[in-house]
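Q: I'm a student working through a structural biology exercise. My instructor gave each of us a protein and asked us to get a predicted structure, then write a short paragraph describing it. Mine is Gustatory receptor. I'm not confident about reading structure output yet, so if you can add a plain explanation after the tokens, that would really help. Here is the sequence I was given:
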Amino acid sequence: MEEEEISNGLYTAVKPFYCVCKILGQESYSYSKAKNNKIKIVRGCVHTTYSIVWAIFFVVALAYTLRSVHNCDYDVLLDKTLIASYIYYIATFAASVVSLIHGAVFSGRKHSQILSRLSLVDSVLFRPGEERGVNRKIMFTSIAEIVIVLMYQLALSFYYISTNTQEACFTNVLLSLECLITYSNITIVLRYCNLVRVMQERFKRINKHLSSYDNVSCIINCVTNGNRMQGHSKCFGDRNAVNLCVSSRNSRSINATEFRSLRITFSELNHVIRLINEDYGISVLAATIWILVTMVLMVFFTLQEAEYGAYSGIGYLFSSLCLLTKLSSSCHTAGSEIGVSKFLVQKLLLDSTFQPKDSEELKMLALQLNSTTTEYSAYGFFILNLQFLCSVIGVIISYIVIIVQIK
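A: Happy to help. First, here is the predicted structure for Gustatory receptor. I'll explain a few features afterward.
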């Protein structure tokens, strides 16, 4: 990827997950600039073929896994455990296969559209030195997440191998495949959360820009300082101090052009959110279903393993819960930034120092924000937020109570 295509260092924020997803075949589109259309077509075919090869490998690995589980000694695996294992492996492998096929065939080019539009927005929102610090912070966080998840999955696999005494049919090959496919699915979710965080930083920048327009705190500070200078005891009793604040407020030269620029920026960011939901919706839906299936089945497996003194299922249950919490909280926090923008605009509407033309643009901005819903969804099936997380946790707790009562 070259900086000429995506300006302002946006590549810095997405580079870690771009490289990992490129290795795992989840990123089928190259952001590097091709010299001509022929090179671009050849490069696209190579990346698509590489992703399809990974998908075929996972399909073959799924068939091998199911066959190995089927050939297990039925004295070792009960019928319920066997069926639960089938469901778990099918959901796990299907999540990666769906993501690979969807990204390679249908939505690969939308990735560059998302970053190109974000690059245009950054050129308006950030000054030359500000964007670099924001993107580097996101990059370091991404690298830490990649390393921590990899080490955790390896440690969990080694622990399962060392404690796997009853289920001899689960060989090291099967456990290695499970570790690889699980890491691939986790990468899908973390890459999505990384892009959502990039969006959140842009909305936070806009809110910071709107806060600089806020005149309420300016009035309070100016009136207080003015009263101190003139020896008054009441904060709001000095009209000269208010006039001083208004003059200071008007000296910032806020005009309709700035508010119109914010309207255009909000429109671009909302378009990017729509592209994200379309581009990553299928992958996030498949990954979320995999997380939910894993959480339910790991409760069942943990209760089964407790009879033999093994508790490796708790590790998988904990990682699934953390992953779902990360996904839900990231989308909820990013989506709530638009609510902060609405609040700040409503405060600005109370300011009577704007010119009529400026007030009209500000009203149009408020109307645009009120008619816009910023939500991240799993392809429209459900909204990813904290309410969704609470619902899932409630279902899991109810399931645990029912299983314990049955036992």
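A: Here are two points you could use in your paragraph. The chain has one domain: 10-213+254-406. Residues 215-253 have pLDDT under 50 and may be disordered. It's a good idea to check both against the output above yourself.
Q: Great, thank you!
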